[in-house]
Structures are given as C-alpha cells and as structure tokens.
Design brief:
- This protein has 498 residues and is mostly helical.
- The protein contains 21 helices and 3 strands.
- A hairpin with a 2-residue loop joins strand 2 and strand 3.
- Helix 2 packs parallel to helix 5.
- The radius of gyration is 21 Å and the shape is globular.
- The two termini are 18 Å apart.
Amino acid sequence: MSSWSTYQSWIPLLAILVSLAAVPLIILSSRRPNLREFWTIGAGVGKFALVFSLLPPLFQHRLAVLNLGEIVTGVPFALKADAVGVFFALIASFLWILTSFYSIGYVRGLSEHKQTRYFAYFAVCLSSTIGIAFSANLATFIIFYEILTIATYPLVIHKETEEAIRAGRKYLAYTLTAGVFLIAAATWTYLLTGSLDFIPGGLLQNTPLASQTAVTLFVLFMFGVGVKAAIMPLHSWLPTAMAAPTPVSALLHAVAVVKSGVFGVIRVSEFTFGPQLLKDYHLDSILLVGASATIILASFLALKEDNLKRRLAYSTVAHLSYIVLGVGLVSSAALLGGMLHLAFHATMKITLFFCAGAIYVHLHKEKVSELDGIGQAMPWTMGAFAVGSLGLVGLPPVNGWLSKWCLGWGSVTAERPLFLIVLILSGLLNAAYFFPIVYRAFFRPAKEKYSGEASPLMVVPLVITAGLSIFFGIFPDVGFKLFQLAKEAAILLFGGLR
C-alpha cells in the first residue's frame, strides 16, 4: 500500500447524497409524473458522473477519503474510494440510470399504484449502495448495509398482495437476523483490534488469534453477509422476493442488494481477515465448499423451475457464488475473475430480468412453458435474452466468458483444479436451463397471436444492457476501465497478477 496516497475529497459523500437529495423532490412532484421521473434520472446521471470522476486519480494511485467524525472511540464515520469500492459503485450507478428508464415503462405500462413511493425508495436504495461501496470501515459499512435492508422492504412489498407481504416479512426476517450476526462479528473484531478499518491484507493479519476464535469469527461474518450474498442455505428469501415488481427484482439481483452481499464477502475476507489468514486458518475452505455447493444445487433448482423470474432467481443464487469462489481460491487471478463477474453478471442478469418484465407487461406471461413463439413477435427482447443466456453459460463474445476464464485460470494457479470442474459443470447446467427458453421463443410455433414489442422505454434499456454485455466481452477495458480496476484491486491485495 506504500505506493498509494490519499487526498481529502467530498466526491464520495456527494455521490451518496445526490440520489438521497432527490427523494423530497420526487415526493413533491408526485402529481407531475414527468417531473418526478426527471429527478430520478437526473440524480442517476449525477451520481454516475461523480463516481466516474474518481477514476483518473485512482489510476494515479490516489484514493479519495473523507472523515466525518467518530461513531465510537477509534471508529470514524469514514469514506474511502479505493479500487474495489469504485468498481462496485461504477457498475451500480450506471445500471441505475438504465433501470430508472425501464422502471418508467414498467410502472406506466401496468398503471402501478404508489409510483412516487416506488421511485423514492428506489433512490434511497441506491444511496445506501454507494455508501456500502465507499465505506472505509466495518461500522460505516454496517450503517449503509442496514439502511439498504430497510429501504428495500417497501419495494419488495410494493404490490401489497398477500404473497408480497409474506415475501417482505421473510426478507426482513433473514436480512435483519443477518445484521445481528454482522454487528456481533464487528464488535468482536473491535475488541480484538481496537479498530474496524478495511485494510488491504487484513485488519487482523497482525493480531494473534486462536484457531477456534478465527473460525468462529469468520463464520459469524459469513452469516452476516452471506444472507444477502444468497449462499446456501441462507438463500431462500431471494426466490420468494420475486413477488416484487420486475425492476425491483433487477435491483435485488443485479444492482444493489445481493451484490452488496458478495461485496461484503470481499471486504470481510480480503480487508478484515486478509488472504494469508484465509489460508492459515483454512477459512478459504469454508468459502470454497459453500460456494461450490451453492453453484451446483442452485443450478439444479433452476432447471426444474417453470416460473421465469424464479428460474432467474436461482440462477442468481448460483452466479453470486462464482464471486465467493473467486475470493475463496485466494489467488489474484481468481479474485480478478470474481470481481469481473460481479460487474458482468450485473449486465447479463439485468438484461434477463428486463426481458422477463417486458414479456409480463406486454403479454402477461410469467412461465417458461408459455413462451412458445414469442421471439417472432418480440425479436429484440428475446434476442437480448439470448445474449444474456450465452454470457451466463460462459460463451464468447458475451462478457461472461472472460470472468469465467479468469476464475478457471485462478483455480489452476491456486492448484485447485477441482473447482475448474465445478465451473465447467455449472456452465453445462446454465445451458440446460437457459437454452430451452431461447429455443421455445424462436423455434416453436406460437400458441396464440402476439402483437409486436413492448414499450421502447422497456426495450431500449434491455437492448443497451445486452449490447454492453457483448461490448465488455470484446473490449473489457474500454470506457469504464473495468478490467483495469479489477486488476488494480488484485494487485493491491496480492502484490501482482498471476
């Protein structure tokens, strides 16, 4: 870390606050939908611009930091825009813009009730997500992590049906319980070290720990972040939460909630414990076993699911654990692959959820078995679905091939080829539950007459995310510098890329 310097900057805080500041404007514009949605999109563009402005100094090895006073003695409310945080914030803030446009088409297409509440809580969710990305320590992280939990609840129950209320209760039960574990683990860490800072190489690296203490503390942390990361058996809230509107599902799966969970796994594993402690206490084995089991079991559950959104949900459960696997392999190449998959899965999965929402709004179809022939009426939508499917299987030129390649390379360099087999088997299972959907849509005769595509407000965002998935598969370092950012994080933690 000696080659890195810091500088005081308000940009991380402004990036958090910009969408929060839009909330009262959204509420006051409730009777003027166009103005209300202008504030939503304007805040999204502003947030992305602020995050993007952090890239040039970051590539000069300068980190933006801001200390806003102490929470408790020795634990400041502090922000830091390091490579890992900027990487996460960049993808979340950009996809929020597209999700905002898509949401307008979705809620208007279905004449959804309480649209102002929907957009207001959506903005709070994204503020807390950027706060999670830029948290400099565990205490700040937990504050934003729990705000995200609470702010997402009204979105999960938005339809206010009995099914939605049950889903919301289950979501809160799981995530708030996880928060208790996370706070307990952070408190124990503070008692051991007198600090909660995220330090490359690990806050605990120079703290003498008994083996039982290290394992117990790590398990506490994994219960704390593993619920949102949907590591089995902590995953069951996620398929249930598909009762939410489709843009919320996209928010849950691609932009904010579950990605905050796997981001928490990265922060705790690499910055609280550190790569060496993961190896010394065999904590990496906990991650590898949990991730591998989740990848395979969730893929089999996706295979038998006829509801399209629930099939996508189980796919998300599996793919989140690719990122956990990348951390558990304790290899710079695997971490690179895991971080790339955090971003690339976001563009691919948000595409698939956008497609599912467009199908539901336009045709009122929710089941895979009902999709025969719709590709002839909705070629752009189902073409985008095919692109996302190819990427999640891991086939070029869609970006998923690159993150999976790096994960496979990491399993070889870590001398753990068994996990390369897990990746290959998972790819085959992905093909088994995605390709039949594409086949049905394009190569089976339609059971009824369909009329054209959904609203451009819905179709244009999904075509853009599908296009980005292909673009990043060919040019991963153009524009957003995602590959370079992920590489900087791997070098920061491991001293090089190998």
